Amino acid sequence: MIDNGRKDDPQALAESLVGEPPAAPREGEGSGPCGAAVEPGIAGRTAWTLRVQTGCDEPCSYCIIPATRGRPRSRRPEGVLAELERVVAGGFKEVALAGVHLGAWGRDLHPPMGLADLLRAVAGRDLPVRVRVSSLEPMECGEAVIDLLASDARFAPHLHLPLQHASDRVLAAMRRPYTLDAYRRLVDRVRSGCPTRRLAPT
Ligand code: SF4
After folding, report:
1. What are φ and ψ of residue 63, in 5° steps?
2. Is the minimum distance from the CB of 137 to ligand 1 under 6 angstroms?
3. Cα 153 to middle of ligand 1, angstroms
4. Fewest CB atoms within 10 A around its CB: which of 6, 28, 39, 125?
């Protein structure tokens, strides 16, 4: 057994499995997951998923994640940027920023930050990589994020906005904090507000 809060710690994970520290990497092993090298994988894969956040405290009635993953916790921007530079140096061409509740990124930091701050910091590094924002809750997709994705070609022109249901009655029962009409207006804003760089909500 290992506490959720320590799952990112490889040593703690290894100790929980075998009761002793992990062996040093063998020759040819890299520093990626399960000893994988941080370099473009087989079949020419060049996309990397960079987890920047975990945990959630939303009240969605159908979801067990707040009970299993705990409160929102964000990776500090300097850690995100360091890993981004590492995987770009390893040859990756696209990096998806991901989180259990990505839109909550930065709220738990001191001082608090927002996802748009992280995107600005990423853009500021001007690395040769395309950055994709992974699934983003509709209530977290604000003007600053839309404007950044729409105006900066370093970001993939893509948004995944999980509606969850197209019935206001069901959305309320799910305790989702938006209506179908609000979702429609958000998608209209994304589509019509970006005339030069059309974003594609999915
Ligand atoms: S926002 Fe997402 S992760 Fe959080 S409780 Fe709702 S469905 Fe679960």
Report:
1. -110, 130
2. yes
3. 29
4. 28
